[in-house]
Amino acid sequence: MDIQKLVKPNIRSLRAYHAEEIPCKVKLDANESPYSGGRDEGSGSRVKKILQTLNRYPDPEAKALKKILAGTLGVKSENILHGNGSDELIYYLITTFGGPVLYPTPTFSMYGIIAQALDEKKIEIPLDKKFDLDIDKMLAAIKKHKPKLIFLSSPNNPTGNYFSSERISRIIKFTLSHNPYPLSLVVVDEAYQPFTGKSKFLPLVGKYKNLVIMRTLSKIGLAGLRLGFLIANAEVINEVNKVRLPFNVNALSQAIATEALKNKNQICSNIASIISERETLFRAMKTIGGITPYPSDANFILFKVNDADRVYGGLLKKGVLVRNLNSVVKGCLRVTVGTPEENKVFLKMLKQVL
Ligand code: PMP
User: Fold this and answer.
1) What pTM was computed for the model?
2) Structure-model confidence comparison of residues 47 and 291, the more confident one
3) Residue 350: predicted pLDDT
4) Which fold has domain 43-263?
5) Closest atom of ligand 1 to CA, residue 192
6) What DSSP string runs through 102-131?
């Protein structure tokens, strides 16, 4: 019997997100932090306490976690929705509002994968030559296709740059001013916001009803916990909350994230180290002949080489794993900023391979 015949056509033609585990000495492929946000004296005993309560379901509303996050972000708990990573929240958003789903390309692949999984139409608009939003094409496509959801990853993965705030604002205002109700929700995915000082959008959630901000703890040292958040108008939050699975974030993740967020100094100092290392790494990469690194507002650097597949394979042979984006951004690889030692190994091996 052919199981394929049972599968919905949109799933049959879907390619699963590729999260292959490749053994390596220096892992710089997945935009994780090289520093663990969970390191903390005393957390051992607190974790032991949580283990004693694991016979109970977790708090379905994650109240303690949302309270501390609300304080950190300067918003109210009613404006926050918690997800098992922001991936899950993308799923919930598309489930709630449907498509078409519009996003620029290249960008984070999960917007397209989830839209297709849910059988929604995808509208992809290429970025301009500077990797910024092609505003005329975006507005024309919005007018034509009337997307229910627009995803803007800013800073953008994999290009690393922050989109023009003015262009993002134009998209928000354009879709909001549509009669009799907003044309689209605009989701500004700020997964990499901690690595740039340039976010202007969180304070605007109160002003624009169709603006949704997405954040994650994954890039600041807690990827293993799987925790992401939406920050939006309470009405949007309440609707998306209807499709959320009741216990989507487990008790250990809730408790450990709540503790980690209390220790903001450590998280902030790790972020500062990554930003400073990113600048050191970028300067060093600029001096290497035969490659073009692109400036980054995130915790990774996109760079162009003459033969991306060969350089990727060469680095891997030497134990350094980066992301090969040749099929997405021609000739490009992406390296995550690691510890100073890891970055030195990467630079040394890159020079050898070239
Ligand atoms: N958004 C962007 C732009 C990302 O790059 C990623 C992770 N690669 C995510 C969201 C997903 O983050 P999470 O780990 O919270 O699911």
Assistant:
1) 0.94
2) 291
3) 98
4) Aspartate Aminotransferase; domain 2 (3.40.640)
5) 3
6) EEEES--THHHHHHHHTT--EEEEE--TTS
